[in-house]
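Office hours follow-up: a student asked to see two folded examples consecutively, so here they are.
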Amino acid sequence: MRLEDMTVALRPRQPWEAVDLGCAMVRRDFGRLMALWACTVFPLWAIICVLLRDAPVWIPLVVWWLKPLYDRVPLFFLSRAAFGVRPGFVETWKAWPRLWLTNFLPALLWRRFSFIRSFALPAQMLEGLRGAAVKRRIKTLAMDGGGSGFSLSYAFSKIELLCWLGLMWGTYGLLPESATPDWQGMIQSFDYENTIPDAFLWWGAVCHMIIVTLIEPFYVGAGFALYLNCRTRIEGWDVELAFRRMASRLTAAAALLLISFTFLSMPVQAAPGDKAAQTIEEVLEHPDFEIHKVKTKEWVPEFEAEEEDEKKKPHLEIIGLIGEILFWGLLIGLVTWLVVYLVKNRHVFISRGVGKKAVAAPKVIMGMNITRESLPDDIVAAARAAWAAGDAKEALSLLYRGSLSWLVTRRRVPISDSDTEEDCLIHVIAAGEKTEAAYFKHLTGAWVQVAYAVLPVSNTEMNLLCDQWPFETSKMTKE
């Protein structure tokens, strides 16, 4: 690539003026960039959605983490379009695996949290450097444009977050009632897993992908423009380009002088002198021999002002060191907190299946006998009979005692004889069996309503509790 082929005007710009230039470059080829994005990024997102179909809450995090891979194809296109060469679909498709695999692990591990990611990416990808040479190159460029790269990343992260929340807020009213969370129940019970439907999580993940698709190419273009502006400032690209143009014009002038000297030194034969002079004047008047003059102004500060500016210049190395210490301190603190949290809540992640060794189970809870001997063989049938006889409390008591008997003897839920209904519900939810926890929560609400509030439950609700009984009565054998 030659500087003479640049399709943008090379001159030192203010940082946000360079950012605007990068966004204009993306707008110019937005259609082609979206086509390349769809062919390279969308297949990866489809694989992520298939792999995480049972846990859609993690999809936005994985999509966000893999951003350094998405940025490489747009940068590949913009870097060549800046020099007047727009790569075609086949050329980009062939370069796609190499672009993603180059520096794959550094980009997703220790460089993932770089605050100048889009500004440093051109140096990592376009200059062909490896290892320590890349680090030195980025450090050199960051001395001039690192602050602008940090501000760019901060601004675009806020824009992306606000657009994501705005899109979700604007389309929330279009969701069906079954896909909306029970916000009041979630706040009261802190049971986020059971109160947020999977449809709501999928909708949030799709909104996030839409916003990343629309904003990330502009982030890449703005970082690339800052990179070009930084190299123009510290390497004098604009001055070099001006000298190259001047050299080409001087070469043309030298050729003209040589031709003129040749004509003048030739002996005049048949053609008259005035005709030769007229021919030379016609050649000199051609536009190709026009000499252009370029005037450049450079401000040279005084020696005292230069020393004062050096004193006022911030120590970027110290600021970078402080930022790195704060980052690693925050990361170590986060890992420590996560380890402590997992140790304290390890019972949540331990399966509550049938253990090899029987544990001592309480026989009486809240004054109710939950031993298998005190319960009928067919608990659901006995509950239906009591309900038909008009004894709602006895019917719900049979279901509630039978549930507790199954949970403490078969499921090994750590319920003690001093626990209340709320304590029992918390233990059952922590056991991790979603179907049994959901049923027991429904049954506990009905039992508390009849036993304490003395409020009747409907016939439909009682039939539902009997029909949805999740415990296998045949396995509740007498010991």
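And the second, which I mentioned at the end of office hours:
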Amino acid sequence: MKTKHNLPSKIILSTGLALALGLAVWLPIASQAAEPEVKKGTEMKGMSHPMNMNQIKTQAEAEALKPGDSISMACSMCKNVMVMPVTAGTEHVKMMTVGEKHTCPSCKGTVTIVGTGKGEGKNQEVKHVCSHCGDDAMFICASKPGSGAMKDMDHGKKK
């Protein structure tokens, strides 16, 4: 038995397939175009790009940070990273001051800042000793505005 297809059903089927194909091609292009363009020096504001973090080891390095910078403490055992924005106050300096203590939010260990004996005064290198994770688990990093990785890249623009 032969099945008859009439002209209107063929047109509707063809139109539907064409629209589906067009939508499948258009959606990825439209979503890519909807991403905001990132200007140089603003990478950190939306945190859409990785930041360039530099390890700091002394209280003097912490004091040299300016409002707008960030300081972070990472623990390789807990797999925890705490980030603190630097303000006009001195709260961020306490993370690098010998004798200061705080509690790790992950393991609940007591973290004590101790001097290593390298350097003197505010230029003495410090390490963070956790009562749970040990003395080689934590380190401190800092970032500065505009120091985002990729800042020298063209962000996908053709030259």
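Two things to take away from it. Confidence is low (pLDDT under 50) at residues 148-159. The first strand starts at residue 54 and ends at 56.
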